[in-house]
Amino acid sequence: xxxxxxxxxxxxxxxxxxxxxxxxxxxxxxxxxxxxxxxxxxxxxxxxxxxxxxxxxxxxxxxxxxxxxxxxxxxxxxxxxxxxxxxxxxxxxxxxxxxxxxxxxxxxxxxxxxxxxxxxxxxxxxxxxxxxxxxxxxxxxxxxxxxxxxxxxxxxxxxxxxxxxxxxxxxxxxxxxxxxxxxxxxxxxxxxxxxxxxxxxxxxxxxxxxxxxxxxxxxxxxxxxxxxxxxxxxxxxxxxxxxxxxxxxxxxxxxxxxxxxxxxxxx
Length: 267
Known about the structure:
alpha/beta; Rossmann fold; six-stranded mixed β-sheet; four-stranded antiparallel β-sheet; 10 strands; 39% helix
């Protein structure tokens, strides 16, 4: 894994990333820099390449060309579990929880990814096994309290409302102790109250836990309220980047979104 000199203040650098699926150019020469401690939003119409970008960062897709550098280390080509160990966690748009397991067990399943002890220690629940399990349980209980999930901690997630399940999905990503959290459409399908709650949790994660967030979201109000920096993709190409207030007035961004809305209205 090649070492790259990291620019001061930069946590994640995506450089000239291209991904092709046959004749489809999902991403073409995309470059993004995410600074430590910020909420960086990636927006764009449907099919713009946002989820493809997330899949490349998390190791699910292998880019045709380019580099992905996390704090000076090139992670392009690493397997997803290796990327997770490097400190990249992801909360998915489509909820990927164990529906028959409780909230507590779902979060513990993420912490189990980092437990290190042998079969013998696990069988007798002694020594390092006991210490690590207790530490993991303490971490998870803090996340449950942070996300106001105490009242459902022993409830199977399949019986919870959609909004609460999205919170559990977020909590499971937090249980992996990420340096950067990839959050894909966190308020998709939520009502106004649930959206406001999720916005508050994301802000608290960023400010109180000091976790950098890379956010994909269609709700422009949420993006404008939360983000420090916004990157806009359209048909796999970066068309704009900057502060939210600047992006909101950019003619190319307005045209891209108006084009999507017009298509949606076409019978």
